[in-house]
Amino acid sequence: MHNVEPILGKELPPHLLTTLRQSGDLAKQMGVVVCMVGGSVRDLLLGRPILDVDLVVEGNGIAFARTLGRQTQSPVKAHKRFGTATVTFQDTFKIDVATARTESYGSPAALPKVKPSSIDLDLARRDFTINTLAVRLNPEHFGQLIDNHGGLRDLESRTIRVLHDQSFVDDPTRVWRAIRFEQRFGFRLSQRTHKLIHGARERKIFSPLSNTRLFEEIVHTLSEKHPRKALARLAQFNVLGVIHPTLTWSPSLTALLRSIEQTLAWFKQDDAGAKPTKWVVYFMALMDALPQGAVAQTLKQFPLPAIQRKKIQACHTQSGSLLRRLASRSLHYPSSIYHLLVGLPDDTLLFLRAKSASFSAKQHISAFLRTYQHVEPSVTGDHLKALGLHPGPAYRRILDQLRDARLNGTIKTEAEEHGLARKLAKMS
Ligand code: ATP
User: Fold this and answer.
1) Rounded to two decimals, what is the model's pTM?
2) Helix (H) or strand (E) holding 149
3) Does 167 sit in the ligand 1 pocket, CB within 6 Å?
4) What pLDDT is attached to residue 199?
């Protein structure tokens, strides 16, 4: 049997390795078997960074996690319904502990019935061979690789392969997962897996799937490093339409997604301010060419957080007129750009920047994100009070005029700003 102890030593940060050894020792003390499983083993063998680790315990996973938490003085959050718990280590990494379980599917696409079982059965319920690998952590077997389904062979041949022909019918979210992994790792689907996905939508395997589970997959896909490639692939398999039947792949959608990639990269490089919610910007793009009614229907059927639903809806309604105004030649002054864009969420601004075909419109949005939105007058309400002005609507008006003057460069120094404040206070 393959032993990956040297790889663990080479790839894992020392504190994580120590915690895995500690977990193995604890399992021995408790008389249970513990393994590192799933995505963390796959990523370890691919040489990708390991952020969090999944453990499976043949025994009581929650009791194991609680004892590990006590031993390492780390907080533990148990999810009793699922027999899982998360141990958080000094906020640097997390270990998710699960009780080994089997799943049986009463009806297609429904959540499975779950019962405690062995590590081997737990691995047999998984989606793809590359996610079935496990590493034993008990001290007498530390580092031994369990590879019951040819996961190592498929990692080496860069292949995504389901464990059985019923896999996508049992759980259609696996279609999204297959494509996500294929695109993320640059792997290929095995011939059989490809065949099983092909025509999946026509076979209506997605119909019984809940919108909540589908929505989770959409968000995961749109949060990938390169969502465009995964979306293109979903479109090839005619799966994109499960989001909404009128959603189709087109050259303009491809161009928009490409432009979003560039805009997000620009924003990241520039570190211009708050973090955008990447999946929301991509969702805006998917909705862009859809008619109002279809957008409203899509946003209603999925459990989007209210704030994101509102943002996407408003963006769809307003983007056309905003882009026209942004591209207008009469938009000269930074203060006019400021008033046009202030109050719009960063996600919307980034979407508009990506969507605009006008160079000057793009520049206006960039300038707003980078500079204009951060400009505040140094004069405050207290200064105006000291000038003898009674608090009221005049305050807002004067402060706005001061900011506009700052933005437009008609005043440049604090002294000039205080001078203008005195003048405006006298006039009101
Ligand atoms: P990611 O890097 O996207 O987090 P992951 O493989 O760690 O990938 P998770 O969604 O965290 O993905 O799932 C952890 C493990 O649980 C997977 O590696 C896989 O073995 C199993 N798993 C997750 N979802 C399914 C599913 N729908 N069907 C079967 N097994 C699944």
Assistant:
1) 0.91
2) none
3) no
4) 82
- Ligand 1 close to Cβ of residue 126 (< 6 A): yes
List alpha helices for 110-250, DSSP H: 119-124, 151-156, 167-170, 173-185, 191-197, 211-222, 227-236
> What is the per-residue pLDDT across 99-123, written as a single tens digit (0 to 9) for each?
999 887 777 777 777 788 999 999 9
User: What are the φ/ψ torsions at residue 81 (nearest 5 degrees)?
Assistant: -60, -30
Distance 334 CA to ligand 1 centre (A): 48
Q: Which residue ranges form the domains of the chain, and what is each CATH number?
A: 5-152 (3.30.460.10), 158-242 (1.10.110.30), 245-372 (1.20.58.1960), 381-427 (no CATH)
Give the relative orientation of helices 359-370 and 251-270 as an angle to the nearest 10 degrees.
Answer: 30
Residue bearing the CA closest to ligand 1, atom 5: 39
Nearest CA to ligand 1 atom 30: 126
Tell me the CA–centroid distance for residue 70 and ligand 1, in Å: 27
User: What is the per-residue pLDDT for 1?
Assistant: 65
Asked whether 174 lines ligand 1 (CB < 6 A), one says: yes
Q: Return the SS3 of 86.
A: strand
pLDDT 10s digits, 320-335: 999 999 998 888 899 9
